[in-house]
Amino acid sequence: MAQVGRQIVNIPSFMVRVESEKHIDFSLTSPFGGGPPGRVKRKNQKKASGGGGDGEEEDEE
Q1: Per the structure, how many domains does the chain have?
Q2: In a domain, 48, yes or no
């Protein structure tokens, strides 16, 4: 999501005047604007920290 001034916008084709271009920024809740990571990144982090515990362990004797 993006924000123009204080207004949060989620439409890519949002019309902005030339004078307001300097006020365009990522939303504070967006991962790009310093917010928490998104759904896919959290899922990948959880998978990486789990160590691949699939429950399929083979015992060789």
Answers
A1: 1
A2: no
The pLDDT, as a whole number, for residue 44 is 93
Contact (Cβ atoms closer than 8 angstroms) between residue 22 and residue 15: no
Q: Tens digits of per-residue pLDDT, 20-46?
A: 777 777 777 777 778 888 899 899 999
pLDDT over 80 at 1, yes or no:
no
Query: Cα(61)–Cα(58) distance, rounded to whole angstroms?
Result: 10
What type of residue sits at position 55? G
pLDDT of residue 43: 93
Q: Which DSSP string do the residues of 13-55 spell out, in sequence order?
A: T----GGGGGGEEE-TTSGGGT----HHHHHHHHHHHHT---S
CA distance 20 to 55: 55
Structural domain includes residue 56: no
10 part of a folded domain: yes
